[in-house]
Automatic annotation (TrEMBL), chain A:
Sequence ranges assigned to domain YCII-related in this UniProt record: 3-106
Organism from which the protein derives: Modestobacter marinus
InterPro entries per UniProt: Dimeric_a/b-barrel, YCII
Family note: Belongs to the YciI family.
Cross-referenced Pfam families: YCII
Full protein name: YCII-related domain-containing protein
UniProtKB/TrEMBL annotation, chain B:
Protein name: RNA polymerase sigma factor (Sigma-70 family)
Domain annotation RNA polymerase sigma-70 region: ranges: 10-74
Gene3D superfamilies for this protein: 1.10.1740.10, Winged helix-like DNA-binding domain superfamily/Winged helix DNA-binding domain
InterPro entries according to UniProt: DUF6596 (IPR046531), RNA_pol_sigma70_r2 (IPR007627), RNA_pol_sigma70_r4_t2 (IPR013249), RNA_pol_sigma_r2 (IPR013325), RNA_pol_sigma_r3/r4-like (IPR013324), WH-like_DNA-bd_sf (IPR036388)
Any single GO BP term: DNA-templated transcription initiation
Database matches in PANTHER family: BLL6612 PROTEIN (PTHR47756:SF2), BLL6612 PROTEIN-RELATED (PTHR47756)
Annotated family: Belongs to the sigma-70 factor family. ECF subfamily.
Taxonomic classification: Bacteria, Bacillati, Actinomycetota, Actinomycetes, Geodermatophilales
Key words, A-Z: Sigma factor, Transcription, Transcription regulation
Length: 135, 380
């Protein structure tokens, strides 16, 4: 049993797979995409593998300590919004292979024309508790 | 004020109660639900009105719940007739054992087997199990009900495999501590219960292993939550009563001359527990036990741990030579390599490997420990 974080990014790293932004899809395509995400979460709850899923807003603020009494810096040249994280899902699965399988399935969420958007998902193991025995 | 219900006592009778219901003809999933209902009722009713025989009380209430939940009047009458023929609960060791086998059935995934065991044999609530494994209650509820469906067709009297049960209990024990249930203590309780109903040296081996490791728990973690390596642990904080019990259980098992991997692991743990200081550790004998363990399992993890022991018994160079046969993909290999290089006096290599091992660490406590090791060498 191991937990994995699946990070959804705003863009695909391969230009050829990049599809149009969601606001240029048809409403039905948007609905189909969102429904796919919901169904995926519901399916994982049913299999006992769902832990958490959240989307995060595109807007964000950059904050850094800049000395006592000085305001945090909130602007500057940072990564573009489309590079940032769109949302995440945490799953609890029996093997790494299963985690890869589910990430692949999530990446197949439908986009324009009902075609899989094939977005890149970053799959990272969540830190666990140290085991009691390791002989 | 009434005393609170002894939850551990309450849970210890669960497998017996469930076993009686199933033997009377209730299907497993329905019986399990009925027993959970009865447990909730017990927590409510017992403080004011403690029963003389807790198991009999639970059987009666759970059976009534089961009948209430069964719609068919005809079926109800038939079942009630069966009850009249068989008054009172019969505490049956065989029923308890069958329940362990059922919950560890090979058709279940490891996580499902663990969840079902904790619920049906351990008597924990779904909420408690979900909290212990840090997943939502709805997820755990589904995991358990799927597991119940999976084993619903399994005959209750079919022979089970002790090794599968032990693997599940080992998984429970190895899980860290979170939520309001101490899973290590729960695993020990369930293994003790199993040891009482099955005659098998590896059950004793696993129990001894758990007791010996549990005995060192207070010394394993510093007050700030950081890991304390075995060599630096305050041995005054080891639980000597648990160690004595573990050694006794182990010796009785070894005397039967049917060695298995849990007995061998427990023997290694016992040799560590036996040393008053880290320097007094009998590494030569520990290497011999690792050789034994390797013959039994041929596991890469055992090969890795053996390399550590060889490094202590015969020097860092010998340890590194032993490490050469361990595949690079084995978790913690880099950490061991770093340790042996430091012991050999090659501090720059050790520092680099500690940092590399920290990046691969599977949990925060180990990552922080390895990062500190790298920092110590880099700043020295």
């Amino acid at each position: 049993m191991a937990k994995y974080l699946m990070l959804k990014h705003y863009r695909s790293t391969s230009k050829s797979l990049d599809c149009a932004p969601m606001d240029q899809w048809t409403p039905e395509e948007v609905s189909a995409h969102i429904q796919y995400m919901r169904d995926f979460g519901a399916k994982l709850t049913e299999t006992g593998e769902f832990v958490d899923a959240q989307g995060v807003a595109q807007e964000g603020t950059w904050v850094r300590y800049d000395g006592e009494g000085r305001p945090p810096v909130t602007d500057g040249p940072f990564a573009e919004t489309k590079d940032l994280i769109a949302g995440w899902m945490v799953i609890d699965v029996d093997s790494y292979e299963r985690a890869v399988e589910l990430a692949g399935e999530l990446s197949a969420a439908p986009g324009p024309g009902g075609e899989p958007i094939r977005e890149w998902l970053e799959l990272r193991p969540v830190m666990s508790e140290p085991p009691t025995v390791r002989e | 004020m009434s005393p609170p219900v002894d939850e551990v006592l309450l849970r210890s009778v669960v497998p017996g109660v469930l076993g009686v219901l199933v033997r009377r003809g209730a299907d497993f999933a329905a019986a399990e639900d009925a027993v959970q209902d009865a447990l909730v009722e017990a927590v409510r009713a017992w403080p004011a009105d403690p029963p003389r025989d807790p198991q009999a009380w639970l059987v009666t209430v759970a059976w009534r719940r089961f009948l209430d939940a069964t719609r068919s009047e005809a079926a109800r009458r038939r079942r009630e007739e069966v009850v009249h023929e068989e008054p009172g609960p019969v505490s049956s060791a065989d029923d308890t054992l069958q329940l362990y086998f059922l919950c560890a059935h090979p058709s279940l995934t490891p996580s499902s087997a663990v969840a079902l065991t904790l619920r049906a044999v351990g008597g924990l609530t779904t909420r408690q199990i979900a909290a212990a494994y840090l997943v939502p209650e709805a997820t755990m509820a589904q995991r358990i009900s799927r597991a119940k469906r999976t084993v619903s067709g399994v005959r209750f009297d079919s022979a089970g495999d002790v090794a599968t049960v032990l693997r599940v209990l080992y998984l429970v024990f190895n899980e860290g501590y979170s939520g309001d249930v101490d899973l290590a203590a729960e695993a020990i309780r369930l293994t003790r219960q199993l040891a009482a109903v099955v005659d098998h040296p590896e059950v004793a081996g696993l129990l001894a292993l758990m007791l010996l490791h549990h005995a060192r728990r207070a010394a394993r973690v510093a007050d700030d939550g950081s890991l304390v390596p075995l060599a630096q642990q305050d041995r005054g904080r080891w639980d000597t009563a648990l160690i004595a019990e573990g050694v006794e259980v182990l010796q009785a098992a070894l005397a039967r001359d049917r060695l298995g991997e849990f007995q061998a692991q427990a023997a290694i743990a016992a040799l560590h527990a036996d040393a008053r200081t880290a320097e007094e550790t009998d590494w030569v004998q520990i290497v011999e036990w690792y050789d034994e363990l390797l013959r039994l399992t041929d596991s890469p993890v055992v090969r890795l741990n053996r390399a550590v022991a060889v490094g202590e018994a015969d020097g860092a160079r010998a340890g590194l030579a032993a490490l050469a046969s361990v595949d690079a993909s084995v978790p913690r290999r880099t950490a061991v390599q770093a340790y042996l290089h430091e012991k050999d006096g090659d501090l720059p290599t050790a520092a680099r490997l500690y940092a590399e091992a920290a990046a691969k660490a599977p949990n925060a406590a180990e990552r922080d420990h390895l990062t500190r090791q790298a920092a110590r060498l880099n700043s020295g």
